[in-house]
Structure formats: C-alpha cells, structure tokens
Amino acid sequence: MRVAWLGHKSATLGGGMATYSREITAGLRRKGLQVTFFHHGDWTGQPRDGASADEESVPLDSISLVKTVILSTPRAKRKLADRLRRHEFDVVHASFWFSSLDFDLPKLCRELGIPFVATFHVAFDRRRNVVAQVFSAAYRLYAPALKQCDRVIVFGAGQRDVLLKLGVPAQTLLTIPNGVDVEKYSPGPSDRKRRLGAERLFLFMGRIDAEKNVDVLLEAFLHADPPASTKLLIMGSGTERRRLERIYRDKRVLFTGHIAEESERIAILRAADAFFLPSSVEGLSLSMLEAMSCGVATVATDVGSDGEALSGAGIVIDPSKLAVELEMAIRQLLDLPFLIPELGRLARQRVLERFSLDRNLDALIAVYEELVTSRRTATPVRS
Fold this sequence. Notes:
- By secondary structure, the chain is α/β, with parallel strands linked by helices.
- The chain has two domains: about 1-180 and about 355-380, Glycogen Phosphorylase B (Rossmann fold, 3-Layer(aba) Sandwich), CATH 3.40.50; about 190-355, Rossmann fold, CATH 3.40.50.
- It is about 45% helix and about 20% strand.
- The protein contains 15 helices and 15 strands.
- It has helices at about 10-15, 15-30, 75-85, 105-110, 130-145, 155-165, 190-195, 215-225, 240-245, 260-270, 285-295, 305-310, 320-335, 340-355, 355-380, and strands at about 1-10, 35-40, 55-60, 60-65, 70, 90-95, 115-120, 150-155, 175, 200-205, 230-235, 255, 275, 295-300, 315.
- The strands form three sheets. The chain has a seven-stranded parallel sheet, with helices on both faces.
- A hairpin with a 2-residue loop joins strand 4 and strand 5.
- Helix 11 (about 285-295) packs across helix 14 (about 340-355).
- It is elongated and about 65 Å long.
- The two termini are about 25 Å apart.
C-alpha cells in the first residue's frame, strides 16, 4: 500500500507532532507500507540509523509565521497537487495542524478519488477560560475541513465529543490514541541520577511555553522546599525558557534545553522518580505516555485527553486549582516515597494495555485498508 504522509519533521515547527510523524511513518514502513513523507522544514534531531533510499522525503516550501502557524507557498501547493494527480498513492494521511494546506487537502483528495485521513492534534480544554477559548476557535475553524475527510483520528472521547458538537459526522470520527514503542520506552537501569547528583529526580519534558505552566511547577516545587538532593529537571526549549532560567537559579532546578538524542531522553526518563505535566491545554501528550511507559510516576492536569489516559494510573490534578494541587502532589511524593514505584507500575501497565505503538499502527492500517477497499468497490470498472 502506498501512503502519502503529511507531517512535521522539525521539532521546532512541530513539537510532539514531529515525534508522532516520525514514529508512525517508521512503524508503517516496518510493516511493509510504502510511505512518502511530505514535510515543511528540515529534521532537527539526529539522523535515524538504517535510513534507506525507499524512505522518500519531500520538502515543501513554507513560511513560518509564529511558532506552529505555517503558510504553504503556491509552489508547495502545486508540487503536492501534481504528485497526488499522478495517482501515486492509495491513501493520504495528514497530521493536522500541518499548514495552510489543511483546508484544501480534503476537497482535493475527494476530487481525485483518493481516501483522505487526518489526525487532529489541536489541543483542547472544555473549561471556559481564555486559553481554552483560543483553542476552541481553532476547532471551529477546522470543522468544515474535517467534515470533508474520510476519517478523522482523535485521541479520546472528550475530543470526539467536541468535534461531534461542531457537526463532524460520527462515522468519520475514529478514536485511536497516541502510541509508544513499549520495548524502547521501558523501565531499565540508568546512571543519570548519579551524574546529576540527585537522590530523587523529578522531571518536566516538553515545550517550555506559557500554556505548559512550567513557572507554576517551579514555584510549587520550591515552595515544597525539598532537600538539596532532590532535583527538578526541566528538559525542553520554548518561548519561556530563558526567562525562567533567569528567575529560577536554585541549585535544585536544572535546565537542559532540548535533548535531540532519543537514547539520552530515555536514560533520563528511566532515572526519574516522577514526571509532571501541568499544561492548561493538551491533545494527548506523547511525552506523558513515554514517561508512563518507562514506569515513571506521573502527575498531569485533567486537560485534553491526558486526564482520561492517566486516571487510575497516576495523579490527575484540577487545572483550576493548579498551584495548590501541584504542591500537594509534590509533597505527597516527597513524604510518601513508597507511592512512587507503585504509581510507576500502574503507569507502565496502562500504556501496555491501551497505548502501545503496535496497537496504534494496526488500527491505522485497518483504516487504510477499509477505505481503499471501499473506494475500489465504489469505483466502476472502465471497459
């Protein structure tokens, strides 16, 4: 089967969506599908081992306006449309949001008779606050395009309900949660605590932007006044990083910046006692699932599909009481350290049961096969 994949390779442009595209396309190829990866920008991480000539990658011209808002050029649109019109692909799968092309692709693929699948990554929160309203506007903006897709992949029941209310047909929506390579992201030995001089290690891993509330996490951690041997490691880059580094100079707080090498991120995850994700909005965080898969006790806000994924396997906190409940969770883990391994075990078990990459890939391939078969059956044979 031939798949045209539209997604991000650049972690700067795509964040977690770049990880999603990288893992899914590599997995589809391992399962024998031919995948052509259309993308904006260049891959900013380490080269993948064993990359071969059949892993076709097609860069598209674009202009990055602000952070993940990307404007595709007319040349990029023509380049993609020309490839699609040659009928080189059995199915097109786009990781939204991708660029301004998002709003033209479903209609173009329908005209060409090519099944079109979109994974909708846009974060959401059903509470009534300023941040949630901004993302709610994005959902309303995308709804007309999503209605024209053959399938829209969402990450949980809450996200599905939001799109149903916006008129996206129920038969179009399919819940396939993010998946993690549970063999690679697994508990194991690590010397990173020793290297960092920590007896206990707490971790944030992700973009350091305003909606991630890293400042609230830092305040809660320092207000809990942990011993000098307990460290909070902030891994990632973003618009808030430099400001926070200037403000929080405590020796118990460590900033690493973005770590591109996957093996190093896994080593740090394996060393961590607890992972914190205090976001105001999310889709379904891959960073959180990776931490859970490594057997790390996990604390996250009940936003997007994160609370749904973590409930019963970690500590879910109310985002409207963020500062108070974050500090309470930190104090619990400091005062009751015997909770940490049990929460880690529950987190790992949850990922094995619901969020493995293999399960995700098998579900996607089943969607592709169903759509391609239906399209072929519906297309009359020309004599």
